[in-house]
Amino acid sequence: MRYICLVYPAETFGPTPEQIREFVGFRREATESGVYLDAGRLRPADTATTLRDREGEYVLTDGPFAEIKEQLGGYVVLECADLDQAVAWAAKLPGVRNGAVEIRPLVEFSA
Q1: How many domains does the chain have?
Q2: Which residues, in sequence order, are CB contacts of 92 under 8 Å at separation 6+?
Q3: How remote is the C-alpha of 35 from its chain's centroid?
Q4: Alpha carbon distance 59, 7 (integer Å)
Q5: Side-chain half-sphere of 96: how many Cα atoms within 13 Å?
Q6: Does residue 44 sit in helix, strand or coil?
Q7: What's the pLDDT score for residue 43?
Q8: What is the pLDDT of residue 67?
Q9: Mean pLDDT for back-to-back runs of 10 residues, the chain (111 residues)
Q10: Which domain holds residue 66?
């Protein structure tokens, strides 16, 4: 099953050179284990544009959908046997320390 790990790092998250090395190590280990599929880091929330449909009329606003303390910083997609394995891998992400990682199974669409 594929899982997406949505990473909400602490406000103080750099990433520092050490955090980058830590993620590269995570990616190498996860790739060698066959669970790593993809990852990406997002630009800051103030660079976001939010699109809303209001009864057929599209409205664009600058910034994130909602003003919240924790902002989505990136994602990692893993192929894991089950949620327990996904949690074990997510616990190794540098952004989880003093932050949070939301783990969700992805819906598998058939062709």
Answers
A1: 1
A2: 26, 29, 30
A3: 15
A4: 27
A5: 15
A6: coil
A7: 87
A8: 56
A9: 94 87 97 98 86 91 68 94 97 92 94 75
A10: 2-105
Please report whether residue 93 resides in a domain: yes
Q: Are 78 and 10 in contact (CB under 8 A)?
A: no
Residue 62, CA distances (Å) to 45, 59, 66, 73, 81 in order: 9, 10, 11, 17, 39
CATH number reported for the structural domain that contains residue 73 in this entry: 3.30.70.1060
Residue 111 lies in a domain: no
- Read off the amino acid at residue 103: I
pTM equals 0.86
99: number of Cβ within 10 Å: 18
SS3 of residue 29 by DSSP:
helix
Q: Is 19 domain-assigned?
A: yes
Cβ(50)–Cβ(63) below 8 Å: yes
